Amino acid sequence: MKSLVKEHIEKIKSGKISLDEFISEIKKKIEKIQSEYSPFITIKIENPEKKGKLYGIPISVKDNICTQGIQSTAGSKILEGYVPPFDATCVKKVKGQGSVIIGKTAQDEFGFGSFSVNSFVIPKNPWDKTRVCGGSSGGAACLTALADFPHIAMAESTGGSISCPAAFCGVVGITPTYGRVSRFGLIDYANSLDKIGTIGKTVYDTALLLSVISGYDTLDSTSLEVRDEDFTKYCEENSKIKIAVPKEYFGEGVDPKIKDLVWKAIKKLESLGAKYQEVSLSQTTYALPSYYLIAMAEASTNLAKFCGMRYGFHSELKGNFEEYFSQIRKLGFGEEAKRRIILGTYARMAGFRDAYYLKALKVRSLVIQDFRRIFKKFDVIAAPTMPVIAPRFDEVKKLEPIEAYMMDVLTAAPNLAGIPMISLPCGFVKSLPVGLHLMADHLQEKKIIQAAHTFEVNE
Fold first, then answer.
1. Potential cystine with 133: which of 99, 138, 364, 421 (Cβ 3.0-4.6 Å)?
2. Which residues are catalytic?
3. What is 1-459's CATH topology?
4. Closest CA to 288 of 157, 189, 402, 390
5. What is the pLDDT of residues 67-120, one digit of tens each?
């Protein structure tokens, strides 16, 4: 697939395209897409401030990433009307490279979900309007799939929130190493898990935006002091990839047709010169409960500041502070947010902290060790991104909370470990896209980009 982004940048440089006419044209297209699929919470198209690597490229921003002068709600009623007075570091970087900010994309409230239905704006799947887009970056993936104009989405993942919607919508999503991209200006879900990444139509598109937004930031204490990289230079074929295929990622819960497509993709890479071997990641079984305990505990702490006093939704000041805060949080938070606050608070309580939260942190260390053992011998791990194709909205409504949480079974472990991953399309089941998930060791984005590009250009 040709990169519209790459072509557009070249045409802008050569003067073949009028930026004003282009912006006027995409405004109409965005309005049409929004009326049919609702990928945005807020649409606001801003002209570029400077010229640079992204000059004239429309960039959408997930709604939990702060944008100066543009409402940022993180998909929650409790932040409706909140307009940040500053830009997140990653937004400041893309503006500095001449991008056209086009608005804020829909998501699950604070990132709580795998379907982008836990919000006041619910996007529809670009392949079938009766189905979900995946979560929590559902709006970002939806828009990327539908856009017939050059566009890259800035997204965010805590437990699979980039890979999941990328798979369900048939696009490419990169989740970088934890700390590779500054989290300053991100409305937190879980501080030790959140990662800002990119979604695009091609591997090149996602690599380009990642090149711009990554880098050390003194405003983020978890930011890694590593050299800046131009990830687009890794969009090259590599025929000597060593691939690990974990048997735990092809278990009973994964649709057999999805397994077949992913195996075909692995065999395709083998035919191009790659070597693969089946392996075991024994800690995978414990990754999902560990992830949810850590994420919910951190979320309950982070959401304590939303009380109707400083940000977004507020009401008439009456009663004592407990009565006022309780009323605001009752009205402002959705059902899933309340559930996670309660569960997370319970896990942190005296008497339960050692039994749940601290034990989950120990499991996390074992999961990281498990991955490191594999990466001593292999370049990438290959697996299905999601165990199922995008479900219908009516099917999601029937799911119990634990069943919905199980949707993250293939993405929780790599997110828990903070390793980089990429999801890219590898075929269709029932006319709906399926994702191939490639993972690599910390700071080895080069390897997943090379492997993904190799597959993409030969597909």
1. 138
2. 62, 136, 161
3. Amidase signature (AS) enzymes (3.90.1300)
4. 402
5. 999 999 999 999 999 999 999 999 999 999 999 999 999 999 999 999 999 999
